[in-house]
Design brief:
alpha+beta, about 30% helix, 5-stranded antiparallel beta sheet
Amino acid sequence: MKLEYDCFTDKGSRPVNEDFADFVNKTKSSCFILCDGLGGHGMGDKASRFAVSFIREYFLLCRSTDEFAADVIEKTQNAIHARQQQLGLNGKMKTTGVILVLEPDRALCLHVGDSRIYHFRDAAVRFRTRDHSIPQMLVMTGEISEDEIRNHPDRNKVLRAFGDDHDPLKYDRTELPVKAGDSFLLCSDGFWEPITEQEMTTLLAQSDSVKKWLRGMAKLVSSNSDGKNMDNYTAIAVKIKG
């Protein structure tokens, strides 16, 4: 399986970048991870970096994707709780998380919180993760439309995150068939809120490389945002070449 991928991150107008992203490759699979630390609880930057590093190392230890997927969320949650106790943080070290594992015939998506994974095929969105947030819950109950999530006053209220006191931590797992030409985007809410899915797909169709697609989206995120109150914005873009 041949992949083309690129990563982008910027702290926006915030003093600290609480997003963190990384990836790791094995012989027959690749793992992409993105976390967005919850700044309102403090230590968001430490939480996101710790979670990504833990998930990355656990992926390398596991013998198969199924073994990894079976308990990576639980193990990451336990590791963050242990780190909270070690540092005396009393539950303040929290982060969202999205994980994408790609194999030649499938993609496995795991997520907690409101960071997202998008799957594109033929320059159209085929799938996206559903946020664990108050606005997403309101969409599911029919009180607001999907388009209203981006500007909803409670859009930053996350219902699930690594480091919270949920035991067990609920998460979503989705398995998708893949083929050459498919693209994926992992992104924090600071990235997806200022840019629409239509803008993402238009730029994808216009770009001849993953880097151009990702940098084009990042430029649009910046121009569409309020520069005085701009969140950290981070994304990983991936394309299956063959």
